[in-house]
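Something for you to look into today, if you have time. What I am after is a single protein written out in full by you. I want to see for myself how the chain folds. Could you add the entry underneath, on a fresh line?
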Amino acid sequence: MASLLSVTRGKIMAYGGLGTPLAMIGYPIAIWLIPFYSEVTNFDLVLLANLLLIARLTDVITDPILGQLGDSTRTPIGRRKPWIIVGVPLMMLAIYYVFTPGEKLISLEPLASQDLINYPSYVVNLLLFLFSEDLVLLILDPKVLYFLSWMMLMYLGSTTIGIPYGAWGAEISPDYHQRSRIVSGREGWTLIGLLISALIPLAIEVSGKGISLGESFSRMLAAIFLFQDFSTSGKMRDILAFMGMGIIFLLPIFAAWAIWKVPDPMPEIQKKIPLREGLKYAVENPLLLRILIIIFLVIAGESFRNTLSLWFVRDVIGIETVGASYARYFIAGLIGIPFWLWLGKSINKHKAFCITLIGTGLVSFLCFFLENGDYKQFHALFLLKGFCFGGLQFLPASMLADVVDLDSLKTGGKRAGTFFALNGMIAKISAMVAVWAAAVLVANFGFVPGEVNNEEAMLALRVLYCMGCAAFFLPALILCWFYPLTKEKHLEIRKKLELQNT
């Protein structure tokens, strides 16, 4: 295990840097992907929610497999780096096709019965034997096949990078506060990635025919700091495409930096634990279960609201330059990280995390009372939410890393990969369910993306966005407040581990 002294600021920076492109994909998927495919490519909102659910289900299955494989991998360059090298090209290829579907695909109409002759007869006959004709037409629809296949590959690439990346961070240093620095450094880079992702759509939103680069930059500053709004009609396709190209450009650069600069610690003696045994212990580990439940609830609340965020900001409040709102949001989150890091040291990580939950939930509730045109009030609340987001990002991951040490003390195993795979699996299940629920619920109340909606549909959007997260955050707050693994107890665990390894 790397010593505390060997973990320099440069290594923390290099490790955290990979969080930038990984975060850049999270923002467009959470905020822009569903509105784009429902408004521009004319996907039915419920169908889109179901396809995302299927894609995520396949992604969930791969998490524990890749976690176990990462723990058992032994190469000259380490356990985690080889998997990141494999995942980078997969993710780049899939992002290109998901973020730039092309005009031909967008213009395609749904399949009719006569279109089935274009497929091999044995394929059609088998599907007709298993399903109804309507369902077969849906399964073989080129839009459905395109979206589902590339989304599944994108999630596979993301998992192949993300699982070993998270486990790697827990293994760089054994120290309680050093680990917080590593995680906060990663989340700082994550927020930079989110900020870049917000600035890209903002740059597209304020641009236009005949507008110079200098004027576009002035408009960006005016949108961020003077809260000036600009028309964004017809620009969603360009927004998604440029965000995709940004990820494709930065991902291999930051991956190479981390692989070259940061050690990949590998214990000389490793007790190999089968995946089934690892999962069994995880279920029997009350502390891990508590962390996973907290993560599930928090991510569900955030994902539920994020699914509806663009529509709330644009259609309820009346703000068109959504990119500017999120740019300010992520700037506030970046500013907030040192504060949450200090607070975690002062009152323990779990208590600091409780404060972020309270602040986030309160902001969401207050947004319910805003009306169309309440720009200043919304911006103020959104800035406060962004500040809380800084702690919401890195504190749970740091708490989970501490649980890995407790497991090592009890079992003698090194199962960081398995634990972070469980974390990834829970996070994805949570996001999957929440995104599906939010999209289906708002659609069932009559909301149609990109259209003028009636009062009932708009009220449903308002209620779901502002109050939906409370159902998730309240039980998470209760579980987190009584979290037992404090910094004092973790220090005792580290001392015992050091004696055990001598």
Observations:
- The chain has one domain: 9-501.
- Confidence is low (pLDDT under 50) at residues 1-5.
- The CA atoms of residues 198 and 326 lie 6 Å apart.
